[in-house]
Amino acid sequence: MTTLAQWLALETPDTALASVIASMASAGADIAATLRMAPITGDTGLAGATNVQGEAQKALDIISNDIVLAHLRDNPKVSLLVSEEMDDAVELSVDAPFIVATDPLDGSSNLDVNVTVGTIFSVLPTLGGPLQKGTAQVAAGYIAYGHATTMVLRIKGRTSGFALDTSGEWIEIIAEAKIPEATGEFAINTARERFWDAATAGYVRESIAGETGPAGKRYNMRWVGSMVADMHRILMRGGIFLYPLDSETVSKGGRLRLLYEANPMAWLAEGAGGRASTGTQSLLSVQPTSIHQRIPVILGSAEEVLRVEAWYAKS
Ligand code: AHM
Ligand code: MG
C-alpha cells in the first residue's frame, strides 16, 4: 500500500512542490468532510452572491474557496492563488516558488442533488507568472467527491489515482492511469445542439449513426454536468469530453476556464496517454491572456480527439 506521502517522495525530489500537493490534498479532505455534512448544515443552496463571471455562487463554492485559501496561506511555498471564486489573484508568501490556480468546487450546480462535484488545481512556477501555457505546469490534480473521495495527480510523467480512507489518509489506488485509445462514449451537453459549429455537429452526427455510420461502431452518451465526474469516468474507461466553442459562448471564448479547469485536466489526460485540444490547436499550447479566460475544451481518448480535430480541419 502506497500513501500519498510515499508517492510524493518517489515522484519528486522537490519537497516544496510535494508540500503544495499535500496542502491541496488536505484542503480536499476538509472539503469532503464539509460536503458530507452539507445536507444537514443546509449549505447546498445559493449564497446570494455572484462571482467574477456573474454566476450565482453556492454557499459551498465560497466555503471551499476559503478552505483552499486557508491551507495555502499556511504553506510558505505558495506565492499566488488564482481561484474561480476570486476576481483577483491573491498574493500569499513573497518569493515562494509556486503559483496555484484552482476551481475549488467545480460542478456546484450538482450539489442540491448529491451528484459528484470536485476540486481542480494546477501548479505553475512563480517565475513565469500566472499567465503561462499549460505545458509549463509542474503539477496538476483533481479531487472527486463521489461515494468515494478520490484524487488524481500528475507531477511528472504518470497520472496516478488515490482514495481517501476513513482515517484521513490518501492511499494510491491507480499507479498509472491509461485512457483507452478507442472508446464508445462521448460527453457533451446535447441541449446546446442548435448553437454547435459544423465540426461538433459533424462529429456527433457521425457518432450517433452507429455501426453502419462512418465511425463504424455504436456510441453511448454520458453527461454528468460536473467536469470532474465526466473526466474521472474518461480516465477510468475511456471516452471524450467536449465543451466546444458554440454560437452562444463564442463572445466569451468558450464555457470552461483555461487556467484552472482546462489546463490541469488537459495535462492529466495527456499524462494518461490521452489528448487535449481546442479543436484547432493543442490545449496546452494556448497562451493565456487573463486569469479567468475561457477556452473550448475537447479531451479524452486520443483516437476520438483526433476525429474531432479532423472535423475542424475540414470545416
Ligand atoms: P462551474 O465551474 O460553474 O461549476 O461550471 C463548470 C461546469 C463543469 O463542471 C461542467 O462540465 C459544465 O460546467 C456543465 O455545463 P452545462 O451546465 O452547460 O451542462
Ligand atoms: Mg468550475
Strand tally is 17
- The CATH topology of the largest domain corresponds to Fructose-1,6-Bisphosphatase, Chain A, domain 1
Q: State the strand order across the main sheet.
A: 4-3-5-6-7-8-9-10
Unreliable residue stretches:
none
Query: What's the main sheet like?
Result: 8 strands, mixed
CATH architecture heading of the largest domain: 2-Layer Sandwich
* CA radius of gyration: 19 Å
**What percent of residues adopt helix (DSSP H or I)?**
25-40%
Q: For this structure, what is the CATH homologous superfamily of the largest domain?
A: Fructose-1,6-Bisphosphatase, subunit A, domain 1
Terminus-to-terminus distance? 50 Å
Give the integer mean of the pLDDT values. 95
Alpha-beta content class: alpha+beta
Count of individual domains:
2
Shape descriptor reads: globular
Structural account:
This protein is of the alpha+beta class. The chain has two domains: 4-174, Fructose-1,6-Bisphosphatase, Chain A, domain 1 (2-Layer Sandwich), CATH 3.30.540; 185-314, D-Maltodextrin-Binding Protein, domain 2, CATH 3.40.190.80. The protein is 31% helix and 25% strand. The protein has an eight-stranded mixed beta sheet, with helices on both faces. The protein has a five-stranded mixed beta sheet with strand order 12-11-13-17-15, with helices on both faces. The chain starts with a helix and ends with a helix. Residues 84, 103, 106, 261 line the site of magnesium ion.
